[in-house]
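Exercise 7.
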Amino acid sequence: MTTLIESEEHKALRSAVSALGNRYGRDYLTRTLAEGKPLTELWSEAGKLGYLGVNLPEAYGGGGGGITELSIVLEELGAAGSPLLMLVVSPAICGTVIARFGTEVQKRDWLPGLADGTRMMAFGITEPDAGSNSHRITTTARRDGADWLLTGRKVFISGVDMADAVLIVGRTEDARTGRLKPCLFIVPTDAPGFQKRPIDMELKAAEKQFELVLDDVRLPADALVGDEDAGLLQLFAGLNPERVMTAAFAIGMGRYALGRAIEYARDRTVWKTPIGAHQAIAHPLAQAHIDLELARLMMQKAARLYDAGDDIGAGEAANMAKYAAGEACVKAVDQAVHTLGGNGLTREYGLASLITAARVARIAPVSREMILNYVSHQSLGLPKSY
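Solution. The predicted structure, written as tokens, is:
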């Protein structure tokens, strides 16, 4: 078993990314969000510094690391108050799938741009009638000569307006059995028949959510990623990093909220001592810190198992990490707001908006209940209820 104590290289990466994040901070995110703009400046600088592609192969412009390194990048940006949600999608899911299963042409075309931030790719799996049941995906691809025709709908697809293409999970017919099997296609966002519609979200974020309509989108044969008969393997090669990175997103957010609360509890004096001296304030903050640290350990385990090529072990750990981080994040944000009292709900302190944002890690990319189902029957050997 690999050690979970960070190397000097990882500590240096964490420190450098933290410095970058703190140069931008929460004020940058808030200002950019108010202007209705994406986080272009931070994304571009992170790309130039090599942080966006730290997990991608060096031969294609990446850093030669893995999800372990990329999760550090996202966690530290989140802890500084400026997380980049598209890190979960573009380099972690799409970049990983293309690096592992893409053709040489696909790697040359996409990985350098994904690594330096000049290109971005979204990921489309969720459908209106499928939800957590990916076996009910109805987006289908059928052959038309040498081409593919892709038809279907997707919902809650992040960052489509910023992306050059979407890695779409569809299904093709097995010629031998007639059954549908999952396959992944690179779909340019300017392709004829590709339509996007923004979803009006109560949650305000720099990365918008979209519904996609694919109406006989014609794709060349080489739009298919990897082997047509290995779609499920390729799909889960992207979903495990997604769970690890969602954990990093949640841990970073929780750390940011906790940091603001600790600062406030040290300075705020109501009677004779700062409120942080009182155990009713101090103990819940200490518990939140412990929960975040435990979630980080599971995230590190999952990332290292994945980077070591243990997809099965990583699947279990990534689900547990995502669950633990989501719970820890919600508790940390809630306690931070409660510590500040009325100030926790003001725009000045910037914590109230996290109450909604923290719930994302409980819901996406898979609900905590589905993770409990996974652990029940995969880890504990209990029978399925569905």
